[in-house]
Fold these 3 entries.
Entry 1:
Amino acid sequence: MARSDDGARGFQLSGVVARQLALWMSYEDTIRVADLKTRSSRFDRARKEVRAKPDQIVYLTEFMHPRVREIADSLPAPLGHMVLDTPWINKFVGRFCRKGRYIHSTKLGGFFLLKSLSALRRIRRSTLRYQEEQARIERWLARIEDLAGSHYDLALEIGRCQNLVKGYGDTHARGLGNFNRLMGAVDMLKSRADGAALLAELRAAALADDQGQALTEKLAGLSRSPEKGRKT
């Protein structure tokens, strides 16, 4: 990436990409969520927040409602694909995902369940989610590098669009959907002199409304608006 950056711009692109790449690589899945929920620092923080006395016991209850997708994502890639692509397996697993469950992370059973799930971090690189995230990251980096030489400001905005991809479950799915919609608009934007500014506006609209309605309206308006010059 540094080879595609502009020293005259203070290597701004490298800084943005490095920061957003670090955030992307720390994505949340069921394994990481379980790890975060069983850390001693979390229990200590909970005691401080409720101002518990040394002789008082504080119980934490987690609401967990994983979808079939999250379960498949946590499995080795071949098994994950099997769960998603085989109708009867998908339906069978879905039976256990219809309702959320309350797990007491400060009691032995709940803590052991979450700790066992967090232990899967040893195989995290083989999971379906890891492989899919790596593929998305590679496409994102390739797009930035491809545009850095001729559309530097647009490449910067593409780098910043990563902050749409965050969270877990439905939040992540909506953010990723919005991100993909913006990436789909890049080919049209790169032919416009104001392409970078427009992508920044689209990103702001997506961040302001994670349901995507504001982004839908912006994209519709963009398709009807005249071009303000072409990028040469």
Note: The mean pLDDT is 90.
Entry 2:
Amino acid sequence: MEEDKYILEKLKLNLDRNFPVENDNHIDNDKEYSNNNFNNSNDESLVILETKRNIEKIKEYSKEINDADINPALEEMISILDNMVLYSKANKEGEKKLQKINEYHLPTAIKMLKYYIDFCNLPVKNTNIEKTSLEIEDAIIKLNEALKKMLLEMNENKLIDINSDIDVLKNMLEKDGLI
């Protein structure tokens, strides 16, 4: 609940900043604005907070599931998402991918996990329930593959940048006759 208050406060500050009301006393000058939480480099964006909340929900559900197939897939998903969050904290362009993931992929996965838990707790199961449970497992595994691909794409820009720097450095060293 504390995190919800924090998110609501950040939303309010964002609204105040982007849609100021005339004679608004919340932000008196640019200096005051620059000192508020938005420009704090240790402050996390709403996208990152939302991703962390989704990760916590997945962790919570994974504790309720005791299945040799889906538990490792959920651990992998959590690991991939944690890496995406780390990347996005350092590289703002990563937040765009996280936002897309938060808008559909993770809420759908969380909904499927809730149903999966419900199905597992049913005293009686039929072939439709078992089939749907297997489809949920398969969907989680496929989502992991997509998340891995997105994480690789996020890091691709870093590879391009560093390879350019390497080439420039080599060319400069050759030009200066140092190698």
Note: Residues 22-41 have pLDDT under 50 and may be disordered.
Entry 3:
Amino acid sequence: RGPRKDVDGNVVMSPDGMPFEDDFAFLQFYWNEEHYEIPSSEFTYKRTELTAEEVEDYDRLVAFVAAFPANLLEDSEGNHIL
């Protein structure tokens, strides 16, 4: 999350003078050196930094993923590989 920035790195302001906020990091469809310079903290958040709605969404996602079977690998015939 954070203010939207233009190609020169300047914060983009709305007509009322407030910065536009983005809830995602802008990623291009190809990787270049700049992508590797972005710290992982740009993509991760502590639970205390999330809004109540984001915490609720995250908890639903955790419950959904927890329902998946614990199957890491299968062979070509669908047999579990330990």
Note: The chain has two helices and four strands.
